[in-house]
Amino acid sequence: MEGLFFYWISWMVWIMATFFMARTNKYRFLLSAWILCLMIMSPLTLNILNFEIGIAALFLLVSLYIFARRLKKLSKLYFLFCTFILMMAYVTFHLFELFDPVWVIFPREWMLSFLMVYMAVLLQKNRMLRLPLILLGGIQGEFLYAFILKPFSFPYTIGSLAFLDIMSISFSISALWIAVHWAVQYIEANFKHFEREKQKLS
C-alpha cells in the first residue's frame, strides 16, 4: 500500500521527537509540528496549471527553501548545486524505469532510495545536511519529471504517497548510516582508551 512506509516512519519520528527529545531542545516542538503537518497534508492534492500536486509536496518544498536560505552563502550555493545533481539523478532513474523497466530488478523504492542516499554521501560531508539535500533534490525531481511527462498526457501526481515512501526510506537509510558511523567512532574511542590504560598498567 502506497504511503505505508511514510506513515510508519513519520509516526516513529514524531514519537521520538515528542517524548524522547529533551524539553529544552528548541527544535523539539518545531520538528513535531512539522511532521504532523506533513502527515495531515499527505493525502490532499491541488490542481495547478493542469498539474496534480500534493499539498505535502508544496509544504516540503517551501520548508526546504526556507532551510536552504538560512545557510551561509558558499554553503548555500554548494547545497543548491548538489540538489540539482540529485534532481537529475532522480529524474534519470524514473525515465530509465519508464522506457526500460527490465533493469529495475529490485523494488523501485529501495533502489531509488539507496541511489539518493549514496549520492548524498558522496556530495555532502556534513551528515546533517544530507537528508535536506535528498528531500529537496527529490521534490524538485518530481516537478521536473511531471513537466517532462506533460506533453505525453501521462497522469502523474507530484509528491504522491509513493514519493513520500521513497523519501521516508531514504531518511531511514541516512539515519542508520549516521548511527553506524557514530557507533564506530564510539568503539574506536573506547578501544584507544583501553589501549592507553593497558600500556600504563604494563
In short:
With 202 residues, the chain is mainly alpha-helical. It has 7 helices and 3 strands. α2 packs antiparallel against α3 and α4 packs antiparallel against α5.
Can you summarize the main beta sheet? 3 strands, mixed
Instruction: Tell me the structural class.
Output: mainly alpha
Uncertain segments are none
Rg from alpha-carbon coordinates: 20 Å
Count the DSSP helices: 7
- Kindly state the percentage of residues in helix: over 70%
Describe the structure.
With 202 residues, the protein is mainly α. The protein contains seven helices and three strands. It has helices spanning 4-20, 28-41, 55-69, 73-99, 108-123, 127-149, 161-201; strands at residues 45-48, 51-54, 157-158. Strands 1-2-3 form a three-stranded mixed sheet. Helix 2 runs antiparallel to helix 3. The longest helix has 41 residues, at 161-201. The radius of gyration is 20 Å and the shape is globular. The chain starts with a helix and ends with a helix. The mean pLDDT is 85.
Task: Compile the SSE list and pairings.
Blueprint: H1 4-20, H2 28-41, E1 45-48, E2 51-54, H3 55-69, H4 73-99, H5 108-123, H6 127-149, E3 157-158, H7 161-201
Helix pairs in contact: 1-2, 1-7, 2-3, 3-6, 4-5, 4-6, 5-6, 5-7, 6-7
Features:
202 residues, mainly alpha, 7 helices, 5% strand, globular
